[in-house]
């Protein structure tokens, strides 16, 4: 069960990598895969209740989602991705807060001090744009919330407050990312460090910055998150937080087949430094 509309799902390189891990395990086991969109929660709820399946993987649902309760009521193996659904349910996660902290610490260590944040959706209400303080701390999406907290941890250690740093949220597609990056740069035209919550957002922001005459990384250093295959192919190659996306899919599918031991697995992250980040001039 995925959060996007199915027509948009495979446009996201992260999703393609994640599904590759799931299908690799299913192919080896002779199992099939049914894909359900939760963009319409009513339809998703009906599908979860009625789907003829042996296990359910829930990807990126918000805290308190009734989809978790519906999946639990099916009494079949159930694994949540990036959301701890409780001690009796399987979970595959990464340390989003720690990874975001690494990203911000990297730019701070390079002497960057004027920051901007391009965030994923905070609340599933279809709204994107400039984020005020009330909205950022009301975030329902656990991934977005934890990454904001991680950035804030690094800034606090450096004597800065994340409340003073402009945040713009965007849908994770190319068109919206470019629009929201332009909005963010209009708020912080002198930004020297950009933290993007996905590599897709980071690559779109890099293109917008370059088209406006900024040099990356001299004028603006950029760090993404995920390390999709396209990150290394960007020009300049994107510094990002690597998470084992394919392995998340493998572990989720393995946990469905090994349903006797529901457990939480937290996979490691690492910062991959490439050419999109560099020391501040002077």
SSE blueprint and pairings:
Elements: H1 6-9, H2 13-29, H3 41-50, E1 56-59, H4 66-73, E2 78-81, E3 90-94, H5 96-109, E4 115-119, E5 129-130, H6 133-136, H7 142-157, E6 167-169, H8 174-187, E7 193-196, H9 199-211, E8 221-226, H10 229-233, E9 239-242, H11 245-257, E10 264-267, E11 270-272
Parallel strand pairs: 1-2, 2-3, 3-10, 4-6, 4-7, 7-8, 8-9
Antiparallel strand pairs: 5-6, 9-11
Helix pairs in contact: 2-11, 3-4, 5-7, 8-9
Tally the helices: 11
Distance linking N and C termini: 50 Å
Q: What percent of residues are in strands?
A: 15-25%
Radius of gyration: 19 Å
Q: Give a count of the beta strands, DSSP E runs of length 2 or more.
A: 11
Biggest sheet: strand arrangement: 5-6-4-7-8-9-11
* Major beta sheet summary: 7 strands, mixed
Low-confidence stretches: none
Task: State the shape.
Answer: elongated
